[in-house]
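Job type: complex structure
Entries:
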Amino acid sequence: MSDAFEIQYAGSALANAPTPVTPRNVRNRGGEPNPSAAALRQQFGDAIERVEVVWGVTNVYVRPERALDIVRWLHDDSSQRYDYLSDVTAVEYRDIEAPIEVVWHLRSLPFRRELRLKAQLSKNKPLEIASVWSIYKGADWLERECFDMFGIRFIGHPDLRRILMWEQYREGYPLRKDFPLRGRFSRAEQLRQALAANPEARYSMEELSIADAFEDLPTEMRKRLQGGERTGE
Amino acid sequence: MGLTPRPEHRVVEYNPTSQEGWVATRLDFLVNWGRANSLWPMPFGTACCAIEFMATAASRFDLARFGMERMSFSPRQADVLICAGRVPFKLAPVIRRIWQQMPQPKWAIAMGACASSGNIFDNYAVVQGIDTIIPVDVYVPGCPPRPEGLMYGIMLLQEKVKRERMNDKTIRAEMEPDPKSKLYIPAPVIDELSEPFGNSVHQTRSGL
Amino acid sequence: MATQKRTVEVALSTTGVDAQGRPQRVPLVTADDGSPIAVEAPPMVEPDLAGEHMLINIGPQHPATHGVLRLVLELDGETVVRCIPHIGYLHCGFEKLGEYRQYNQILPLTDREDYLNAMGNNVGCAMSAERLFGIEITERCKVLRVIACELSRIASHLVWLGTTCIDIGAFTPFLWAFQQREYIYNLIEKWVGARLTPTITRVGGLAADIPDGWMTDLHKFTTDFPGTVDEIDKMLTKNGIWVGRTIGLGVMTPEEATNWGLSGPMLRASGVAYDVRKDFPYYDYETYDFDVPVGTNGDVYDRYLVRMEEMRQSVRIVEQAAKRLPDGPINVDDPRVILPNKSKATSEMESMIHHFKLVMEGPRPPLGEAYVAMESPKGEKGYYMVSDGTSKPVRWRIRPPSFVNLAAISKMVEGHLLSDVIAINASIDIVMGEIDR
């Protein structure tokens, strides 16, 4: 090891936050849980279904309908201060009966903590869950991608449309397990559908309404714009 | 594995005993020499191959030796479309449109395995080789090809350019796609070209 | 009466003026006898715009968008009123592919995803896989991986520097930066054989140990490289054109930056001192003596300064790592993940069985999931892997820093000029391969 030097703790972390150390010999189950888990249990009672510590990270399973309140409390409460949203994603397991899990990875920069929230959505019902966009602006595109890949609708999202595939993509939601790796259509058909799209026509309704191109639009499109329609590419 | 050349696209081989006039052959030489040594590339760079293309254009490997340092980002002023990187289906109409905007004489280099055949991305999102969308002259294998590899591909293209003859009217004919389906090679041929070979989907024989 | 539709470019009838005072143009349709009929003008929606706004489309094929990004800008003159980015033009289904690959077969995918930081991605993915397997790698492997990460960081920042300079108009630093990258490529090539897509890690170890004399080459690089950084620094940092084009652009306040999920130099330039290497360290980063540059204003100039300084700090880390490199094996001694020696596999039954299982089926982790984040040059890069006990993950998720960083562009360019959009876009340091995966 090198000579003694003063380690610079950069960070917006508070002074009493735990000293950061490289984790060693992390256990599969049964590590030390994040203190937020206990605080959540106290605050929300049975909206917290269960808590597990897997490979050093605390997983908190929450009821989908309370997810937004829980995330908001974690963000706003001064003892929690989860001000950073790392990721919003979803997991579908290979077991057909298993529910789809929506996973949020949260970080508290002041307290140097990491938390994983999960909500399980049954596949028998429409896949819907509240959007956390009102709390974290960074959830905008993350949730759009989740929608694009899994078909999960985020209620309260300002502009939920496909982001990685094109809007008129008809093959389905690619990361679902019943979606085959190479797609549902034949290659020639996929190519045909892809080439049929006119690159110039890929403007959203909102974009076209502000443009000089308004008068070149077909009549029915203009009527839809006048009606205030805002979906599109 | 390659495309079956369409009957109307036969290349006229250089035959020294043919009755081409002396002027025609000298003109051929001059025109081809000019074209081959100043191919202005249109770098259609999408992914990692674009970085290797940039490295080829930078000081160590230097594309300026080939007269190609003037990258033309407008297709209207370009000679050769270098497709460097993987092309997903969302990008397919864009590359088709760019190819159609390029004026003749034009050539295309498929740089890298992704542009040549889809590479490891044998899935729902990636075009299995841009030769299903545009006609390609030179395929440069590699993931990514070394700059020397790309330069070899460019030199092969230069040789191809030098073999062209003014007499052969079919070389510079624009290949038109079928107006309904927008494909320029028949659908069964595309399916056959895009089939996985080897075990590209399941990398082992046991398990899933 | 049947009418023949004919698109007439020039001959347009004018029927009065519209709400904005522009002559209202309607297309003409020719009747059978050749006389033109004006189609009835549609009722114009009264847009509540102050003046005439223009819709401009940049991309997806454009030299300055750093990849296939499409920006649709609403311009009021030259000022951007709104920016709507469109991505997905490089979506190649990485995460879907990951579900059909064993854990060692996923690593080559990570090279192609953020191709500027290939070694860093390899290390990050292997880190997540090793957490999922519950493996502690050897000390030598740790230090070599730190060296790989930092070299990768330097290489990525050099590309960022070169391409940003071209965007803003300076061509020479591009050549200087790429020349330095060639030296890094030489090092990587001596190590594993490939320049851009090395796949330098394996689950539990590395692809290969460093060859003899590599440390000498590395030392030569670390002594010469800071000179180039100083050269570029001298050329740009106090340059009137550079400062004028980058100062005050694309400002994000610290609260906004945290809320939008920005990370890496984007976040640190805004004043939030969050670096995964310092706050959630891995591979003993807390024992290396390095500083993390943190900006004050959150504009493009600060991001430039942060990245330049990060390159210098990376050199510091590499030098320290090179001094402390211990001897020993690079692969962990676990037959369930590491292939045994060829000689042992052909002579001992147990090794042969391990070899067979590893090649045919691949290493199998226990049930569980792991999300381990690392500091990539773009920001917080994490790989979230979920295992169901089989050799292929149930879910392989890449947390792409550039994806989340790019989402903020619509906020950052509002009110700026068109040419500033290019500068701001360049300062985010996006890699479309990572954004679209």
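Summary: Chain A touches chain C through 78 residues (CB under 8 Å). Strands of chain A lie at 48-54, 57-62, 84-91, 100-108, 113-121, 128-130, 153-155.
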